[in-house]
Amino acid sequence: MSQNALDLFSARFGSAVLATGNSHGDEWARVDGSHIAEMARFLKQDAGLQMQLLVDLTCVDYAQFDPSAPLALDAADRFEVIYVFGSVTLHHRLRLKVRVGGGAPAVPSITDVYRTANWWERLVWDFYGVRFDGHPDLRRILTYDSFEGHPLRKDYPIHKRQPLTSERGVQDLVRGPGPGQSNLHAPMSQRPGARPNTRSDAYD
Amino acid sequence: MSSVQTNDALLIPGLVTKLDEAEGFFTKLTSKGLGWARANSLFSYPFVTACCGMEYMATAASRYDIARYGAEFPRFSPRQADLLMIVGTINNKQAPIVRRVYEQMAEPKWVMAFGVCASSGGFYDNYATVPGVDQVVPVDVYVPGCPPRPEQVLDGIRLLQGKINRETHNPVADRTEKKNPLFRIFSR
Amino acid sequence: MANFHLEQRPKTPPPPVDDALSTEQEMPTEPMQVNLGPSHPATHGTVRIVAELDGEVITKADVEIGYLHRGFEKSAENATWAQVLPYTDRLNYVSPLCNNVGYVMAVEKLLGIKDPERSQYIRVIASEISRITDHLTCVGAMGLELGGFAPFIFAIEARELLWDRIAELTGARMTTAYTRIGGVANDIPPGWADKLKATLVRVAEMREECDKLLSKNRIFVDRVRGTGIISAEEALDFGFTGPCLRACGVDYDVRKAHPYLVYDRLDFVVPLGTAGDNYERYLVRLEEMRQSERIILQALDQMPEGPVIVDDWRIALPPKPAVYGSIEGAMAHFKLVMQGVQVPAGEVYQYTEGANGELGFYLVSNGAGKPYRCHVRAPGFPILSALEHLITGKMLADLIPTFDSINMIGGEVEQ
Predict the structure, then answer these.
(1) What's C315's domain CATH number?
(2) Complex prediction ipTM
(3) Do C358 and A55 touch (CB under 8 A)?
(4) Whole-model pTM?
């Protein structure tokens, strides 16, 4: 469908394009991450491509893709950051894939090319721990600051719970931060202060 | 001073005085009256987070009218509400907010866990969610369903109304001290 | 099949500045920080906006989300391909069938199969009904939060009528999980098509009632016209799709640009706005409801007879007589339920036009019965990221209609 776009792109960035292909009708190109900002700018501004829309920016953790041969947790190609670009005028799309890894995976940010990348990159940072160099405000977006770990990595167990945290953000000068867990396992009637207006055997 | 009705009549039958009888009678009358009033005029705070909010909107709208149970207008200030309806999933980031809102409500207050996510976490059994809002606030009535049909919600309201009617209500809050002897007679 | 532009009434100029009041601007003031907290009646779902105010003007706003993050993507990696379906209902919970259709189409793209034609028509009808319910909720909520309770009641009643039909079709009012990999769960019940046509007539009445109550209402229009303006270039830069983008004048609808299912056989118009403000977004949604009604009526007429799910027992559950009557049926049923559909390794990005914009599913499979990665490109996520830009420098009172008209649904934005 977008073979034309892929050809224009490969022609411009010959050496940085490591592989191309067509998967189920979508053209994709695996590229070298260090040039991603330049590539994004080209895709947006070139008259033959006109990819005004950054449709999606996400990441995949390939650590357990092959269960019989899992990757090491700091393998150099563990994470793959996916960029999907689309054009609303020429109706073609292109998918760029960047492999990163190592102990502190990082990719240049494309926030100054597409403003929408701001939040998408924060999402990838939050879930996978892939840093975006040059991002104006890289902080967690869906989890909270005191969350430990990056939940969508394959080595993060799904049931690992984080403690209920006290409130963050808005300063409460009178009361201070909110409470944590309290008295979880007692039944209602034995929780002090729970129901002062009722008889203690009215519930349960 | 407790709100449990002491029953001296059981201990020393001969010494129950007419004053005690009168006190007990008036207290029970007030309690029943207050119970009826509070049950039939629930001001709800719908703490809406997720999909159950749509069913809450449906329950509050014209077809499954929640106004016929007196719980018509949502009061979006915890100070003015007495029923905290936790509608939808509570996750770790939201839990302190729920606790804060619950603590800001004035007595008497009740909590309804609307939907399975609020009752027990639903099928979101992962790192992000709190498995049931009763980990954070005490819950009075659980309305399961994903989302519950409005009829289920109204059934939950009816159960809660029954519970409120069975409770003992005082016209004066426990912590205040009234110097007026009349108050001391008519409340315990 | 031209796309038409909505007419615009000339705006009255603002009153001239009174010199006597200008001394007020010289008074020393401090910026005030206001927290539109996560539990707020006007936030659909839970968003916290910490706004710094200078008088009534918002100078800085920080939009914080994450209060409804339910771990959809992680849960999807631990469920079989079919078990992910109920999770998708709860993404955009006002148009659940659109999510179901989008997810299942992505899995089918990975498998390389196509569902039968009757199922495609049913999916189109279901998606359009969901689109109508989404727009009804948005329009009703906009009226409600700007002070009008009646349009909300009409919109919710219209939604109830449609939910009655959906309950007859799928079994549930809201969280339907109706589609299956390879088709849909069951055929439409007998007589349902006529009932749906009657319901659409009634829904149209209520929708026009909402229209009459709001569209020319001075109170409503004064608050939504000219507020929340975004230009087409900025909208594209922020990743807008759907009604919010079309209200800026950009003619992009996935149903027309990359037709899927049977949309290329159906005749409908994509409404466009010009100004990109809240009023245009509201009008675009209202008009899209009318077009959806048109689509449904055409689809009901054109729908052919036939099966509603593929006849491949490695993908779709065998019919019950075969499950109970033959060994192969029982085995196929067992394998499908216990191990899930074995989807060959690969990755796919499949996008459909959800009610809020382009709803995309990026799926990666490693050949197992469970998704290796299931990412949802929620249309509300980039639109919400632009909220900060939309309200900074504007009045605090403009925040409410802006937030309503972008129709952020917490479930999809926060997955």
Answers:
(1) 1.10.645.10
(2) 0.86
(3) yes
(4) 0.85
